[in-house]
Amino acid sequence: MKAIWNGVVVAESDDTVVVEGNHYFPETALHRDYFTFSNHKTTCAWKGQASYLSLLVNGEMNTDAAWFYADPKPEAEEIKGRVAFWKGVKVTP
Questions:
Q1: Where are the transmembrane segments (predicted)?
Q2: Model confidence over 80-90: pLDDT tens digits?
Q3: Which of 8, 10, 40, 41 is the most buried (most CB within 10 A)?
């Protein structure tokens, strides 16, 4: 699977975990040069607290375009150490 934004592959892996229709990529699959820190956080009732990353590609910022659960609840343990995307990031085979 590939995560593509602004014409650039920002993550690539054959080992994604699908939860609620979202592909969670291993952290090691991220092309880190395109990711920047975000202070944004949200809470999911069954997964726990999500933290976000922004993308900076070709001079364009996509704020909070990726999220991860650093310490997911036990029922979501399979996504620990993994990152998912939204906000126009295309995930394709």
A1: none
A2: 999 999 999 99
A3: 10
For residue 13, give every residue at least 6 positions away whose Cβ sits within 8 Å of its Cβ, in sequence order, or none.
1, 25, 26, 28, 29
- Could you give the CA distance from residue 91 to residue 74 in angstroms, rounded to a whole number? 26
pLDDT tens digits, one per residue of 60-76: 999 999 999 999 999 99
List the beta strands (DSSP E) in 1-93.
2-5, 8-12, 17-19, 22-26, 35-44, 48-57, 60-68, 82-85, 90-92
Location of structure tokens 């704020």? 63
Q: Is 51 helix (H, G, I), strand (E, B) or coil?
A: strand
Of 93, 87, 82, the residue nearest 6 (C-alpha): 87
What distance in Å separates the CA atoms of residue 17 and residue 58, rounded to the nearest whole number?
28
Q: Which residue has the tokens 């952290």?
A: 27
Q: Give the pair of three-digit tokens for residue 57.
A: 């590609």
Q: What pLDDT score does 74 carry?
A: 97
Task: Estimate to the nearest angstrom the gap between the alpha carbon of 9 and the chain centroid.
Answer: 13
